[in-house]
Fold this sequence. Notes:
The protein is mainly α. The protein has a single domain, classed as lambda repressor-like DNA-binding domains (434 Repressor (Amino-terminal Domain), Orthogonal Bundle). It has helices at 6-19, 24-31, 35-42, 50-60, 64-68, 84-108, and strands at 71-72, 75-76. Strands 1-2 form a two-stranded antiparallel sheet. It is elongated and about 50 Å long.
Amino acid sequence: MTYRSNGELGRRLADLREERGLSQVDLAEQLNYTPSVLSRIESGQRGLGAGEALEFADFFGVPVESILRHEDDGVLMLRADVDNADVRCALDEFDRDIENLLDLRAAVG
C-alpha cells in the first residue's frame, strides 16, 4: 500500500486543475498560494501538508485519499479509508492542542 510521491501528487493536482480548465495562476489565486509555490507543488519539488491536502481536496470536491494515495492497475490503495471530515477533525484537535500550549506558555511567562 503506497502513497503518491511528490511528483505523482503534483501530477494528480495538475490533472485536477486542467480538468477544470484552470491555469496555475487561477488556482493559485483561488487558494491563496503564489503561482511559484503551486508550480513547485505540481512539479514535485514541494510536497503537501495535511491541511494543504485537505484544502485541495475540498476545492476540487474529491476525497483527500484520491489525492494522496497511489493508483496501481486501476485499484486505489490506502492503508485505511480516510474521509475529509476525519482529517478536518484531526486538524481541529491539533489546533486546539496548539492553542492550549500557547495559553500555557503565556500563563507561565
